[in-house]
What we know:
Blueprint: E1 2-3, E2 10-14, E3 17-20, H1 21-42, H2 50-75, H3 78-83, H4 98-116, H5 120-127, H6 131-144, E4 162-163, E5 171-172, H7 175-194, H8 203-219, H9 239-265
Parallel strand pairs: 1-4
Antiparallel strand pairs: 2-3, 4-5
Amino acid sequence: xxxxxxxxxxxxxxxxxxxxxxxxxxxxxxxxxxxxxxxxxxxxxxxxxxxxxxxxxxxxxxxxxxxxxxxxxxxxxxxxxxxxxxxxxxxxxxxxxxxxxxxxxxxxxxxxxxxxxxxxxxxxxxxxxxxxxxxxxxxxxxxxxxxxxxxxxxxxxxxxxxxxxxxxxxxxxxxxxxxxxxxxxxxxxxxxxxxxxxxxxxxxxxxxxxxxxxxxxxxxxxxxxxxxxxxxxxxxxxxxxxxxxxxxxxxxxxxxxxxxxxxxxxxxxx
Length: 270
């Protein structure tokens, strides 16, 4: 049985403050996305250049931070926000919503497409494979922060069972690491492979919605529900699953539309 390694949330101490691991993980995610975006740009036959990539990453970062925090406040911590509005600004304490971040990025990409006169779906197809590395680092940040731990394991001999002493002494699933592996590494490999060949417009973004949705929906069965939310429907569905189900359905619908439109119009894959 493993024991959660208590990690100082401050990576670098500076006086009474410092640089938190949570923030560093976000920086690593944006840096990885920037590097991968430059690599994809070199394969775009001139459709993307370094200046566009710089602006793209800036808009993505803005959408992730603002949308992610706003989503967390609205979906998971609205009562706390009402009692302490300044809490919404304390990003170093953690507390970001992926679904809020996704909505923030979709809005930010709308602004980007207007600036560069690009098709919104083309931009989302370009961005989709760049997102999983950010999710990977974000989930590692959750693990370092000792938050979003898993449910108690059924079999205490399960080799990945981990005790989180700051929670209780029950062996639990390290669900943060499951999410890092599935939503981060596996989803990145799938999207990078799929986008390496021309695909119909909006197909890559659709695969991201389905891939992330399925991974998140499955991991939620191993992740402890939020204490103030519990189970939402049928005594088993969590808030994460409730927010993720429309992603899966929407992604499947968009994928079907993408291929049907490509066949009907004869437009070649992009």
